[in-house]
Design goal:
Length: 92
């Protein structure tokens, strides 16, 4: 149980990859894939950002317009537009 709790604290974004956020995204961003990179970045460091280039997604974090359509569908209440903005800045 202690190991589970330690791991849970490391995960920055509790995304379950349900993809409810993707259907309403006007920029067609594969949000769960980028959230996975974000979690890896937060736990393992900036090398994880290199994985963003290999994600097959029509839209990228920099394309996010911050409309919040994704966040409205997220059962985890993740602040998706804020994270997309942070990823866009990190990938510059």
């Amino acid at each position: 149980m202690q190991a589970c709790e330690a791991f849970r604290k490391q995960v920055s974004v509790p995304c379950t990859a349900c993809r409810y956020c993707c259907d309403g995204c006007p920029m067609k961003i594969d949000i769960p894939a980028y959230l996975d990179v974000y979690n890896t970045y937060k736990t393992d460091g900036s090398w994880a950002l290199n994985r963003m280039d290999s994600i097959e997604s029509e839209g990228k974090p920099a394309d996010c317009i911050g409309c919040g359509a994704c966040a409205g569908h997220c059962p985890q209440s993740i602040r998706i537009p804020e994270i997309m903005s942070e990823l866009a800045e990190l990938s510059k």
